[in-house]
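Subject: for your reference before the review

Hello V.,

The reviewers asked for a structural picture of the protein, and I figured it would be easier to keep everything in one thread rather than splitting it across files. Below is the amino acid sequence we used in the manuscript, unchanged from the supplementary table.
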Amino acid sequence: MKRINSLLIVGLILVSQSCNRDDLNTSNPNITQTTEFYSDLDQMETSVSGIFAAVQGRNLIGREYWFLHDLRGDDNQSGGGQLEAPRNQLLIGTNGPTNYVSDQNWEGWYTTIHRANATLFYGTDAEIATADKDRLLAEARFARGWAFFELGTLWGGVPMPLEPALTLEDNLPKSSQQEVLAQALSDFQFAIANLPVASAAEEGRPTKGAAQAMAGRLLMWNGDYAAAKTLFEAIVNSNEYALVDEYDHNFQEETEYNSESILEIGYAEIGDFNWNEDSNGRNELSVRTQEYSAIGWRNLIPSLSLLNEFERESNGATKNDPRFEKSFYSIGDTFNNGEDILEGDAVQGNTVNFEGENQKISWRKYSLMYKLNPGGFLMGGINMRIIRYAEVLLNLAECEYEVGTNASAIAYLNQIRTRASVDMPEYPTANYPVDTDAEVMRAIIHEKRVELNSEQIRNRDILRWRSEGKLTTEPLSHFQANKFELLPIPQEEIDNNGALTSADQNPGY
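And here is what came back from the structure prediction:
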């Protein structure tokens, strides 16, 4: 069953007024006061659901989160002239401090932080069972840690509120990137200590495994591969997760919350297929299927470099990697449960010259086309998988490489390749020998890209691998050093935050 998070808007601004009449009652008896709200289990559950409603919303996982990451990586290219200007700016590197997509992500993560801070500040004294309180506070810390991790890795040093804002004057200066990431790690460590394992958790709630995986991502970013390895090994040794046989099942609606899912954000098919939100402001549909599908807006399509990354008989491999067809639709493929054939005149936008032929190749991942013909505008209810067990194994492979145990790294890579529906030859192969450190790292980069393509992983990997000198060629033709390592702080934040000035803007903007 999908867990859909209800929206709670917590009042964070208290306005005090003076009055000549001491006996004037300025409280509204029909409104629950902030200090009274966080008093029982139902109210605390509602508060935590409100935090994750911000994550689920259109600013983040509902739309702009995957656009931001996909546009800053190299797995995608423009689907055509229908791609909106702010998105194209990120894709080609002309974005500035007023870019809509990055600004929406910034706003979404700070909404998450402020709601988490309210829960942590006021909920500490809630008179509920200790186990329930610890779990709910850990869920709030997990969400806040995730937000700080995103802000710290993508924007660098940012304001770091740890308590709810009580007045409009509660502005904060920038903390350093190191301070922001240290706070994120602290939040994840609290979550690890207090969240249940997956089998004990309601579907859709963050778990100990999710917190360990997030903390492992952060430690890899910091270059602490030994500590990250310990966390990823704990996930493996928990025996809570396993690769599913069918790769497709990680991106379809009927197979959500499967054994490979460590963290996913839920959506449900309620309401109509418009942008309408319900009376509580909930956005319970995702627009991913419309944005990327072959029959849809097709705003982004797979890049040529991604297509060429796959092992194919045409480039000397012994077989075609099945993940190619499971990730993309090509003209002539069947869809709608095999009842329809994809024809060129149904697909708008750009072609790509792949294997010597101009082709219209489109995304299949997270597209509802596998079970229906979308026709016109179509929102979707497929849950977005944020962390898969496959990523944990691939991250473990890199950690093993970093600590000097290449044989273990190769073994983890081969677990991914021998999934029943993939069944690719194990490393070493003719195209990917693994006799040297450089060859092992090349295999890790390759396997991670073809397994996790357009899953909002590669953008951050490119940033990390570039800084560590692991990339043999620069993936982004428009990359400029001392600029594109970080996103610009939104101009609106600099204008409205009295503790910031133009001198606080990131380099190059």
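For the response letter, the relevant points are probably these. Strands lie at 76-78, 261-265, 300-302, 328-329, 334-335, 340-341, 352-354, 357-359, 362-363, 384-388. The chain has a mean pLDDT of 91.

Happy to draft the paragraph if you're swamped.

O.
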